[in-house]
Every structure is written in C-alpha cells, then in structure tokens.
Amino acid sequence: MSFFDKVKSGFDKAAEGVSDFAETTRLKLEVSKLNDRKTAAFAEIGRQLYALRAQGRGLAEVEEQCKAVDGIDQEIKKIGEQIAKINEPTATTPPAG
Q1: What are the tens digits of pLDDT across the range 75-87?
Q2: 0.90 cut: is pTM over it?
Q3: Where in the sequence is the domain holding 43, given as residue range(s)?
Q4: What is the Cα–Cα distance from 53 to 59, expressed in whole angstroms?
C-alpha cells in the first residue's frame, strides 16, 4: 500500500467517524425532544389525575396520555438501538488502545 493510499484510507476512516458522530448526535437530539414530549405528557397526566381526584372519578380518562408515553418510550428504545448499532465496532475498525 502506497503512502497516498494509506493517507486516503485514514481520511476515509476519519470521515466515517465524523459521519457516525453526526448521526449519533442527531439521534440523541431526537431522544431529547422525545423526552421533552414525555415530560409534557406526564405533566398532563398529573393535572388530569389531580382534577379527577377532586371529582372522585376513575383513571380511564388518562389512558390516552399513558398510551402516548408508552409510544414515546418505544421510540426512545428504537433510537437507542440505532445509536448502539452505529457505535458497534466493525470488523474493519481496529479496537481502540
């Protein structure tokens, strides 16, 4: 392998690392936004539960918000799996150290 081939290979690996970092950062931002939505849903659940408690009514009225939180948790789990897959060492990447 010539010197220039080695340099090109190094640049290709660096570009791949930057691309992986950018994708991981984008996915983490998406998780952050989903967590914000989850927090808002929990706040709404709390407001509704408080109002229901004052009225002496059951919890069926908050089922929709609870399902929304379940869906957000599933999205977060899928994105976490994507991040883990991006960060997995590949056969072509030598181990760090």
Answers
A1: 999 999 999 999 9
A2: no
A3: 9-87
A4: 9
